[in-house]
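[Target chain]
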Amino acid sequence: MSAPVVETEMAVIGPPDLDTLDLTGPIIPLKARSCGMTDAGRVRASNQDQFLIATLRKALHTEATSLPVAHVQDSGDECQILMVADGMGGHAAGEQASALAIDSVEAFALHTFKWFAQFTANDEDRVLHDFQNALGQANSRILAEAAEHPELKGMGTTLTLAYRLNDRLFVAHVGDSRCYLLRQRALYRLTTDHTLTEDMVRQGVLNPEDAAKHRWRHVITNAVGANTPEVTVEVHKLHLEPGDTLLLCSDGLTNMVSDQEITNLLTAVAEPAQSCKQLVSKANEKGGTDNITVIVAQFEKAG
């Protein structure tokens, strides 16, 4: 089952070429240092978030999954997949929805992305189409599981995914988890929140300053599952540069920690593992009202 795909403007506009990709240009071999961490926070009894860090070689090699401690990866591999999912629908349902979504996309990547080594400029649309199908299949799998188990009815999840091929980055996104790029000490949000308040801001009926505290700020308008027959996938594509840092996170971070605080923490710490720990600690320090999940990946020139 395929899903509609939409290319949107970034929530924070960066350099003019940040959301463009010319695959005819020279490839810059990059290596990544990556870390993921998830924490239940200070209020929730369970953790419905999931994350994945994996590399594509001749098979999909999972480097880190949703354990409560950080997992670090140093990789010069060409292909890397990073995912964060934030489940909804109650304790068991939310946990199952996010796990199913991660597992579904992981399985899709294993069976579909065998062509990555022969990637050419003509494959850009194919990458986007494959992610469209991957999230569509995840949506179908969650709906099928909920249909078989009435106690899981309505379960759903956000899903924010980054796929790196050398210096090419593709982002696929549904919900209100986020993907950020830190470049030369400036933080750019690559994704938009699929929430009722964000829609109201885009329509000009709500001020951005009021959205953060609005009573409807947690109402998701686009999710994987959640009784939605079709999911709309937001996509972005861009070049990575040596020195870039990528952050994927659930709203348990961004509801507690401002973009400026995130920027300060990412620029002050050299290691992804330490960045993850400090981001999670800051969210808990400011209340920890939700599950907190972060992935930090730092890129440098290979060789």
